[in-house]
């Protein structure tokens, strides 16, 4: 069977190949897979295309009561059989049996937005487990079943611990946002400065392009006009996207608490104790909310690549970071459509709390995915950040980019490159290089930095003295936005 790639599908080559392989593999055994990702990542588009091209059976769940959900499954089965109306099922074992019977001839069943079904019928996972085991042991015909959902904390738990489906799935496919280069191409933005600003606001979520009418700024000067028409427009759905993102995950109950946690992180608080201090809650009270936000993909814990047990908590979703840094602190003014004044007041927050952290993250992504062996001297096995103490200056130095080759857990891991990333518009100078050299000297106390390259990332460019020095040295690499988006 030849499975054609959908013409309108952008990128997603590996994800499409994995789904096609799942749906077409010649196997006498039942096959179970899960597909999950944030809203607007294109999950349903992929799965509908898959079932159309392979003759599968697609069912879209909705947020509804158990009896209505069963009736809707009956409608899907009836339509697939060419019947009018719906088939009545009194329970999920009957409904799952009917679905798997329809798909017994190597057809793939898709249950999209599976968490909606689980919310009213928590026994459904166990029902699927029994159906899978019956098919595996020859008591029922084999089938192929894909479970899909946007509630990340629910989907990620389906295969964990003692859950019913643990050990039965052959496919565990998270659908991620596009990275900064993919997003620029997807939006059709040629100017790297503009692409960086757009990515800092909405990230690489493909569905946002359609939601914003496919329009994108052409130059940095167009940014405010573009924001005013969409993200900062109180009549636009994007204005309240932060609320929608939190309501989609049933594990997030006390939204006021979760919004407060996100706001604290957006202000630069990066440890549980610091966040707890601001919210007047102890560590124990924050453990669960932080875990839920992490499972939902809204925050991440960045581990120091050289020091265990010193993670920094950061917002992982660019739009949420933008919302909590720019819109939420001045919500009344933006709701009153005083956009120009609100944006002017938010400019310092946008620079420090949005563009700064975002540029650092892009520098690490570039080092991981796009930097060549020529630039780094070797291929990194791990890229992250680290902090080193400077006893002489009585301060702590954070190195934004640290690339390690070989075993990261070695007693003295081999650092092949370390870097500083500044998202401001000022020029980097030779003084910045001196600071990075100092960081390399300090790092030598606990890592092998022999031959380590020094990477200076700058949104605003480089001063003439630094350019001259870098041109005469083999261990210094200067990376501006042009190189970040198109070079290696």
Q: How would you describe what is shown here?
A:
It is a single chain. The protein is of the alpha/beta class and about 500 residues long. It has three domains: about 15-175, 3-Layer(aba) Sandwich (Rossmann fold), CATH 3.40.50; about 180-360, Arc Repressor Mutant, subunit A; about 365-485, Trna Endonuclease, Chain: A, domain 1, CATH 3.40.1350. The chain is about 45% helix and about 15% strand. The chain has 22 helices and twelve strands. Strand 9 (about 395-405) and strand 10 form a beta hairpin. Helix 3 runs parallel beside helix 4, helix 9 (about 190-200) packs across helix 16 (about 320-325) and helix 16 (about 320-325) runs antiparallel to helix 18 (about 340-370). The protein is globular, with a radius of gyration of 25 Å. The two termini are about 40 Å apart.
Keywords:
46% helix, Rossmann fold, Arc Repressor Mutant, subunit A, Trna Endonuclease, Chain: A, domain 1, 3 domains, single chain, globular, alpha/beta, 5-stranded parallel β-sheet, 5-stranded mixed β-sheet
What is the annotated CATH architecture of the largest domain? Answer: Orthogonal Bundle
Shape, principal axes of CA atoms = globular
Please count the helical segments.
Answer: 22
How much of the residues is beta strand, in percent? 15-25%
- Largest sheet features: 5 strands, parallel
Side by side, the strands of the main sheet go 2-3-4-1-5
Q: Helix share of residues?
A: 40-55%
Beta strand count: 12
Indicate how many domains the architecture comprises: 3
Cα Rg: 25 Å
Poorly predicted tracts of residues: none
| The level-1 CATH class of the largest domain | Mainly Alpha
CATH topology of the largest domain: Arc Repressor Mutant, subunit A
Distance between the termini: 39 Å
Structural class: alpha/beta
> Averaging pLDDT over every residue, what do you get?
94
